[in-house]
Amino acid sequence: RDVEVPDLSARRAGPLLLNPQVVRARTFRDFEAAAGDPDAAPSPTRVFARGDRLLIRVPAYDASGAPVGVSARLLNAWGHPMREIEAVPLPGGVAQFGLPLAWLGPGQYLIELTGTGERGAVKDRISFRLTG
Q1: Left, alpha or beta for 29 (phi > 0: left; psi -120 to 50: alpha)?
Q2: C-alpha span between 74 and 35 (Å, rounded)
Q3: Which residues on adjacent β-strands are paired with residue 116?
C-alpha cells in the first residue's frame, strides 16, 4: 500500500488531512478499549468481516494553527452517500469515528473524510472491502 507523506514545513494555505488510521475491533469490548486508547494499533488490511467494527482516526493539521473540524461519511462503491459516520471522542484532539459493519452487505465501500478550517476545506477517501 502506498502512503503519501505531506510536507508540513511548507506554508500551504488551508487544512491538511494526514494519513487516516483504521483500527479493527472484533467485539464491542475491543472497540470501547481502542476508542479510549490513542496508541491502539491500526490494521494494515482493508478487507473486513461483517462482525467487525471500525475505528477511523484522522489527524488534521493547518499551518496557521487554526483548528480543523473533521467529518466522515460512508459512500457506496459508486461514490453515493449512504450515511454520516458518528464521531467518537478521543482525548488528545485527533478526530475519530466509529463504524459498525454488521448492517452492510458484502462489497466495496468508501469512507469520505472532510477537513474544514478557516482557510478552506479538503477531502480524502479510504476504500475497503467487506466480506460475508
Answers
A1: alpha
A2: 19
A3: 69, 121
Rounded Cα distance, 84 and 78, in Å:
16
Cα of first residue to Cα of last residue in the chain, in angstroms, is: 23
Which residues are bridge partners to 69 per DSSP?
A: 116
> 41 φ, ψ to 5°?
-75, 130
Q: What is the pLDDT along the chain (132 residues), one digit of tens a residue?
A: 666 666 666 656 678 888 899 999 999 999 999 999 989 999 999 999 999 999 999 998 887 777 889 999 999 999 999 999 999 987 777 899 999 999 999 999 999 999 998 888 889 999 999 997
Backbone torsions φ then ψ of 101, nearest 5 degrees? -105, -5
Amino acid identity, residue 130?
A: L
